[in-house]
Design a protein that fits this description.
With 119 residues, this protein is of the alpha+beta class. The protein contains 4 helices and 3 strands; from the N terminus they run ααβαββα. The longest helix is centred in the first third of the chain and has 10 residues. The radius of gyration is 15 Å and the shape is globular.
Length: 119
């Protein structure tokens, strides 16, 4: 697992992905910004990024950073604009287990943190 890694490259979100998230999925702009979603226009944008592996090298794609319940960056899922056959819509690094994705914005409000404060 790639626990403890942090995304090191600031990327922007394309207008088509912003439209997909805001209009088609009804996600607030503040949530999109807090989640750190970004667009990879080329495979070169994906190479060398912590938490992205070779099996995810499809572009253009929406990149979604995934954080565990402890707030640590785990890896990124890639949502290619044209997904390869038999891969599914979202691709995560090969060999990584699924994790419960907890947005950083809700970390301070999580049950885990409340229990730590009152337990």
């Amino acid at each position: 697992m790639m626990s403890g890694l942090t995304p090191t490259i600031e990327k922007s979100l394309s207008e088509r992905h912003r439209h997909m998230l805001e209009v088609e999925s009804c996600i607030a702009p503040e949530v999109i910004a807090a989640r750190g979603y970004w667009t990879a226009e080329t495979v070169a944008d994906l190479k060398g990024v912590d938490g992205i592996s070779q099996n995810q090298y499809y572009a253009p794609a929406l990149v979604l950073p995934i954080y565990g319940v402890d707030g640590e960056y785990r890896y990124s899922r890639v949502r290619p604009d044209n997904p390869p056959p038999n891969q599914g819509k979202y691709i995560q690094p090969a060999g990584t287990p699924n994790v419960l994705d907890v947005p950083r914005a809700v970390q301070s409000n999580s049950v885990h943190h409340r229990l730590e404060r009152h337990g």
